[in-house]
Amino acid sequence: MMDKSQTGRAGELAIELYALVTSGGEVDIYAPVVDDDHVDLVAGIRGGDPTLGIQVKTAPSVDRSGVVEARASYPVGHVRDDNNFLYAVVLLDAVRIETMWLIRSPDFNRLAYHITESGREIFEFRGRPSGDDAFEAFRIDPLQIGPAILTAIQSSPHPPQWLAAIAGR
């Protein structure tokens, strides 16, 4: 059984593969060398500037209630709230993405359960692979990852300064 870090990396790699293939090669997507800024993947139109930072949360299974859980934790006052920053929550079944949600950070921050403890702001995602929940509108067909990322890029044409720094530009 893979540990938490391995599961997370497998989810990132799956998103890279699905995005590349389902966009017909139109999405450049890659992992920055360092994940110091909660950015696991950077995406842009092929040949263009990086436009999106993506934080990937991967679950290998649903919990006892049939729910996918994911948590994001930040130092108080340092929560990223930017339309160019997305959360990708992935339910990964071996090498197949079973279910995926793609959520802009303002929506994620608004809809996730939020607590503050020990100087950290913690956001907890709880979504059902099928059924009603607060994140239902953000669930996408895994074979539409590339087009969904292309749409997100096209609706956010000006990359933020923080992303240029992460992408090394």
Compute the gyration radius: what is it?
Answer: 15 Å
> What is the residue-mean pLDDT, rounded to a whole number?
92
Indicate the proportion of strand residues.
25-35%
Q: Can you count the helices? A: 4
Largest sheet: 6 strands, mixed
State the total count of DSSP E strands.
Answer: 9
Q: List SSEs in N-to-C order.
A: HEEEEEEHEEEHH
Helix content: 10-25%
- Which overall shape is indicated by the principal axes computed on the Cα atoms? globular
CA-CA gap between termini: 38 Å
Uncertain stretches: none
Which structural class fits the helix and strand makeup?
alpha+beta
Query: What strand line-up does the widest sheet have?
Result: 1-2-3-5-6-9
Give a description of the structure.
The structure is a single chain. The chain has 169 residues and is an alpha+beta fold. Helix content is 25%, strand content 34%. The protein is built from 4 helices and 9 strands. The protein has a 6-stranded mixed β-sheet. The protein is globular, with a radius of gyration of 15 Å. The model has no long low-confidence stretch (mean pLDDT 92).
Structure keywords:
169 residues; alpha+beta; 3-stranded antiparallel sheet
Give a short summary of the structure.
By secondary structure, the chain is of the alpha+beta class.
